[in-house]
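Write out this protein's structure.
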Amino acid sequence: MMLMFGKKSKHSKSLYILEFEKPLRELQKNLDALIEQSQHAKVDISCEIGALEQKIASEERNIFANLSPWQRVLIARHPERPYALDYIHAIFPDFQELHGDRLFSDDRAIIGGLGTVNEETALVIGQQKGRSLNENIECNFGCPYPEGYRKALRLMKLAEKFSLPIITFVDTAGAYPGIGSEERHIAEAIAVNLRVMGQLETPIISIIIGEGGSGGALGIAVSDRVLSLENAYYSVISPEGCAAILWKDRKFAPQAAEALQLSSENLLKFGIVEEVIPEPFGGAHRNPNAIFLSTKDAILRHLKVLKKLSPKQLLEKRYARFRNIGIFAESSPKHNSETNG
């Protein structure tokens, strides 16, 4: 299931074009036609080619510098975007996967194992999506079952036992809500993870690399540091789920994304994440190697700070971190004078 990426050029072609990227594709087609014409007719039209390249660059800047929350959600879901295993194999080249929850089965939507980065051994966990239909079926489209969270819990306890830091890569639309999940207690599995992660006496860093949907994401993200890629989102509900509740129609997902303020800038502003990792222009899929290096650097920087803390300090700061999220307002009820009289 591992997919190795090579560096892509600035205007690299994608097999999957988002709706708002279509003007760029048309300009690229015109550029390709000009280059082919120049080569075939052996005519120097470098001025026209240069002008069109500048127009493409200008259009790219205009599009990607003004992305709406919904457009960022679409980039977070881009099928060519690097997935958890891509990050794991790039950052932890000696990664050794560990399987099973020792209770039911081995959920392929959550991958876990041991790996080393810059001579630092860590327990690595990631929510994995698939590239092909068969891989997506195997990974259940990145939506974990209860056994996935129980596998993650087993491995995190192992990390604590051997004083290993825990690194998690979050990328799921949400935990699987089907009958099988309910029969095997999906809510309980996530809840236990939240409780235990809050008490683990070892550093934990989570990176939102794509979708961070509801409790399915939080089940492996109760951490000392939560980082987000620039075009990732982290929310209590998906835009489609929010639209179905508020407007009774999923077609209002763009409006829901706007209302939910789904952007990494807002995550940083509201104290949900500690850092936003910039992506290559146009999204992580444009230059995966660059985002792997940026993510690796962020992990090492935060890990260096966390390793200086004692277990007691880690737990105190982790508890305070989550207690400080959100804004609460209290007011005493107004008493009607007529009622009192």
